[in-house]
Amino acid sequence: MNESKCPVPKEQQPTNEFIALSKSTVYSWPKTKKSLILVLIKIWIIAFIIFLVISSGSIYFKTYLLKYILLSLFSSLAIPLLVSIRLYLGWNHVFKRLTSERVEYEESGWYDGQVWIKPLVLKEQESLIASIEVKPILKNLIQIFSIISVLALSGILLFQYNNF
User: Fold this and answer.
1) 8 Å CB contact between 134 and 28
2) What is the C-alpha to C-alpha distance for residues 122 and 36, in angstroms, rounded to an integer?
3) To the nearest 10°, the Cα dihedral for 88, 94, 99, 105?
């Protein structure tokens, strides 16, 4: 953005928000689908171990070992599910700011919300960034969110309708 014509503070400009999010350690995970899947699997394994330790104190589950392990396995899916939702919300926010015709910003931090209408050239540039860079990330996150949801729901159905 041309700083002389743009009243939006530098850190609130959509392009700069995109760059900051891309350089962030956590939010850079979904840039490639493979790296996101590997990180979520690592998170799932760690959560599984934690859930296994927590539920190991139950006397009921000591008699039903298979049920104990499966319950920990399916309930630990909640953690990668929440991580993927958080990643989606962050990237979706940047996507909306990049594709919007207006930029809402605050100059002084005293909640004095202002609105700036983007010039056509900037709007086209940011729309291109949104469609080439951010849209595939959102698509990957939705796919992975769907897979985790299906796994979690299948676990719920397994425990709802089967007696071990």
Assistant:
1) no
2) 30
3) 140
CA 148 from chain centre, in angstroms, equals: 13
pLDDT tens track for 65-115: 888 888 889 999 999 999 999 999 999 999 999 999 999 888 776 667 788
HEC sequence for 107-127:
CCCCCCCEEEECCHHHHHHHH
3-state secondary structure of 103: strand
Domain spans of the chain, in order of start: 29-161
For 41-49, the CB contacts below 8 A with 24+ separation are: 41/80, 43/79, 43/80, 43/83, 44/76, 44/77, 44/79, 44/80, 46/79, 47/76, 47/77, 47/78, 47/79, 47/80, 48/72, 48/73, 48/76
